[in-house]
Specification:
InterPro entries: prtT. Its main location: nucleus. It is found in: Nucleus. One of its GO terms (molecular function) is DNA-binding transcription factor activity, RNA polymerase II-specific. This protein is an all-alpha fold. Helix 8 runs antiparallel to helix 10, helix 16 packs antiparallel against helix 17 and helix 19 runs antiparallel to helix 20. It has 21 helices and no strands. It is about 60% helix and about 0% strand. The radius of gyration is 24 Å and the shape is globular.
């Protein structure tokens, strides 16, 4: 490896750094106070070995020493150490506060702009759930990363940005704060640009208020460059993820196809199914059968089928067929997720967690969907919401117990939080079913009531019309301050 930013011809490193004097101790005094060098170096190695595989857009070569990355990419190094500190949430939160303070002072006030900051921001957004539960900053961090990519010229192909040669330097400096020289087309820049698209795309699926990103010829060129260079095996994974995101954008974005309006439901399903099938055929063999990639594909499929749930449909049977197909994809995704090695779960990014939450959201809606020919009794038992929740609870409980056994000083409180949320989800579901039955009994007696009368312990939980209302409730809890006796109110 010839450097952290190799060109397409593996020549000189890219020169889009503007500040090369920062150190990890400037970024996070907490590292200097809490760590001796071997400890934070071991945490960096943990990130490189176990966590970086889940985010191929900032690859860390096995022959890359911690000293090298600490010197050349101190902000990225600090973010990796912070992410790897997940077994000590109190320490992790303190490092996170240092990092956020550094960003506000040096990026916002001092105007620092370089690839080190952008790579660190991508790592922060990918593993966001691990360390900033009490201070919701995800959208701010994502927008900062997008703005930084624009300032570094990574949002479009190298060139003078449509300005005349004389106008470009002056205008670029006044707007972006750096020289007009465009970035070189190198592998590292391509990965970062694709990574930003991927993070934005995945969060737009999870949080419906965020518009999906737009596919461009420059993104296609970045994919082509990585495919031809084949520097790391993980590059194929990066390209596959981004192409999968592009398929999702084509069919669910504001300007994409819409089932029931621009095309029949059957045609919509066939089109995106064919696109995903072609994507699989073009993948390397090792990637096509990799459980991690399989889970990503299944998560995308369940999102695409979800679009059919509220679509207009002239033929009722087509809607029911799409409902069953959607449920099948959700069950397949949950099977893949719960079948994985539990030792890997603590290292996975937020991007995996939001897909899991999305799966339960879809199951909840299908469990109460009203459509001609849609058998709710079948849906609630093959397997039903409660069974799926129990299966996930068992898995996460096993993760928690393994963490406590393997790492006695670890505080794996986040897995207890996840288990408690699953219990709360079941309470919501059972209350909703009982409300439905009570309403039906009232109608049978021709004594319709406006409000469901509380009848048991489930009445303490508000019966929300939409599961998504409950899904993100109490999500921003600072688990660094929770003890083992924690419980939801």
């Amino acid at each position: 490896m010839q450097g952290l930013a190799e060109t397409i011809t593996h020549g000189q490193p890219s020169k889009n750094r503007t500040h090369n004097t920062r150190t990890i101790f400037d970024i996070s005094p907490e590292i200097g106070h809490a760590f001796v060098a071997p400890i934070h170096e071991a945490l960096f190695e943990q990130y490189k070995t176990y966590q970086s595989q889940y985010f191929p857009f900032v690859p860390l070569s096995t022959d890359l020493s911690s000293g090298t990355i600490m010197e050349e990419r101190p902000f990225l190094y600090t973010c990796c150490v912070m992410t790897a500190s997940h077994r000590d949430p109190a320490l992790q939160s303190r490092i996170a506060r240092d990092v956020l303070k550094y960003l506000s002072e040096h990026m916002i006030l001092a105007g620092e702009k370089d690839l080190d900051l952008l790579q660190g921001l991508l790592v922060m957004t990918a593993w966001y759930h691990m360390y900033i539960n009490s201070n919701p900053q995800l959208m701010n961090l994502l927008h900062l990363a997008q703005a930084l990519a624009v300032d570094l010229g990574l949002n479009q192909a190298p060139g003078p940005w449509g300005l005349s040669i004389k106008a470009a330097p002056d205008a670029t400096f006044k707007i972006h704060g750096n020289e007009a020289e465009p970035p070189k087309l190198n592998l590292e820049n391509c990965r970062v640009r694709l990574g930003l698209y991927h993070v934005h795309a995945r969060y737009s699926v999870a949080f419906r208020r965020l518009d999906p990103p737009t596919w461009t010829d420059w993104l296609e060129e970045c994919c082509r460059v990585l495919e031809e260079a084949v520097q790391y095996q993980s590059d194929a994974y990066a390209v596959a993820l981004v192409r999968l995101d592009h398929i999702t954008e084509r069919y669910t974005g504001p300007s994409g196809f819409k089932p029931g309006s621009s095309m029949p439901v059957q045609a919509y399903v066939k089109l995106f199914s064919d696109d995903i099938h072609r994507l699989g055929l073009n993948m390397p063999d090792h990637l096509r059968t990799w459980p991690l990639m399989l889970a990503d594909i299944q998560a995308a499929e369940m999102h695409l089928f979800e679009s059919v749930i509220g679509a207009a449909c002239d033929v009722p049977v087509h809607r029911v067929e799409a409902y069953h197909a959607c449920l099948k994809k959700v069950l397949a995704y949950l099977d893949t997720f719960t079948s994985q090695d539990i030792a890997q779960v603590p290292y996975q990014p937020f991007l995996s967690t939001v897909s899991l939450a999305h799966a339960f959201d879809i199951v909840s809606r299908l469990s109460f969907a009203q459509a001609e020919g849609w058998d709710l009794t079948y849906v609630r038992s093959t397997p039903g919401f409660n069974t799926l929740s129990d299966r996930m609870y068992t898995m996460l409980k096993s993760v928690q117990e393994r963490e406590e056994s393997m790492y006695p000083t670890s505080r794996s409180i986040r897995f207890k939080v996840f288990c408690l949320r699953l219990e709360k989800f079941k309470q919501w579901y059972n209350a909703k079913v009982q409300q439905e039955r009570s309403s039906q009994q009232s109608r049978d007696k021709e004594d319709v009531v406006d409000n469901w009368p509380p009848s048991d312990g489930l009445s303490s939980l508000p019966v929300m019309a939409d599961f998504s209302d409950l899904l993100w409730q109490d999500y921003t809890i600072d688990w660094s301050k929770l003890d083992s006796d924690f419980n939801f109110a």
